């Protein structure tokens, strides 16, 4: 029995020794393999730095083109707008002080030209005798409203004198009127006509008879 036990122990020892020899080369091989992998990963040749000069060349071109175009254009526009706004403010302040001057009753007979039309003078060849006194038609300024100054004319600074030739009837109403001398601005001429056509006049007289008569009415539009 002792021999069998000794033989078994020896057999186990030999087998254990052999197993130890087989395991050692596996460990060596596995330990050496990772070293080779590290060497392969280091081979990376990414050093072409040619992209940096391209980006550097593009940036200065964009800056040079954009800066002069955007900064020079808006400056003069702002100055023009400020000047226009200031001019409009100055004109708007002066508007409430503007008035229309209408001359008082014309005392001088030279300012008006009189044309009489009566029943006796309708026929051709008949004239008015020198003994008859002719009294010119006159506007009643106290009863008549003054012409309105157009707002647009005020803003634009239009002013001038309009002379109207008015045909006054025997009742003192306006039968017809026309512009004899223009102010140079149609808007002022229209304002004068629209106001005077509703005026009341003292009718013209030929002797003791009321007659139709042409009379000149000057109207002045003046800004103060």
Keywords:
5 helices; rod-shaped; alpha+beta; 224 residues; TolA/TonB C-terminal domain
Task: Characterise the protein shown here.
With 224 residues, the protein is of the alpha+beta class. It has a domain at 98-123 and 132-222: TolA/TonB C-terminal domain (2-Layer Sandwich). Helices cover 45% and strands 21% of the residues. The chain contains five helices and nine strands, in the order H-H-H-E-E-E-E-H-E-E-H-E-E-E. The protein has helices at 2-41, 51-72, 74-94, 151-156, 186-196; strands spanning 99-101, 115-117, 134-135, 138-139, 160-168, 174-181, 201-202, 204-206, 209-222. Strands 1, 2, 3, 5, 6, 8 and 9 form a seven-stranded antiparallel β-sheet that branches. A hairpin with a 2-residue loop joins strand 8 (204-206) and strand 9 (209-222).
CATH topology of the domain at 98-123 and 132-222: TolA/TonB C-terminal domain
Number of strands: 9
Helix fraction bin:
40-55%
Spans of 5+ residues with little confidence (pLDDT < 50)? Answer: 34-45, 53-57, 92-100, 102-127
Give the CATH H-level superfamily of the domain at 98-123 and 132-222: TonB
Question: What is this structure's SSE topology?
Answer:
Elements: H1 2-41, H2 51-72, H3 74-94, E1 99-101, E2 115-117, E3 134-135, E4 138-139, H4 151-156, E5 160-168, E6 174-181, H5 186-196, E7 201-202, E8 204-206, E9 209-222
Antiparallel strand pairs: 1-9, 2-9, 3-8, 4-7, 5-6, 5-9, 8-9
């Amino acid at each position: 029995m002792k021999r069998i036990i000794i033989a078994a122990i020896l057999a186990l020892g030999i087998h254990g020794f052999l197993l130890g020899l087989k395991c050692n080369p596996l460990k060596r091989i596995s330990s050496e393999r990772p070293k080779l992998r590290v060497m392969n990963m280091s081979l990376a040749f990414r050093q072409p730095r040619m992209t940096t000069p391209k980006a550097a060349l593009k940036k200065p071109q964009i800056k040079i083109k954009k800066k002069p175009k955007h900064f020079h254009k808006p400056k003069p526009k702002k100055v023009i707008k400020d000047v226009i706004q200031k001019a409009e403010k100055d004109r708007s302040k002066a508007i409430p002080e503007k008035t229309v001057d209408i001359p008082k009753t014309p005392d001088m007979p030279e300012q008006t030209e009189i044309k009489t039309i009566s029943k006796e003078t309708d026929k051709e060849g008949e004239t008015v005798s020198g003994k008859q006194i002719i009294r010119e038609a006159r506007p009643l300024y106290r009863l008549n409203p003054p012409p309105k100054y157009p707002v647009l004319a005020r803003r634009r600074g239009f002013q001038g004198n309009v002379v109207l030739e008015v045909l006054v009837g025997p009742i003192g109403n306006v039968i017809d009127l026309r512009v004899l001398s223009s102010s140079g601005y149609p808007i002022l001429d229209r304002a004068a006509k629209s106001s005077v056509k509703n005026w009341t006049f003292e009718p013209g007289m030929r002797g003791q008879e009321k007659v139709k008569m042409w009379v000149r009415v000057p109207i002045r539009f003046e800004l103060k």
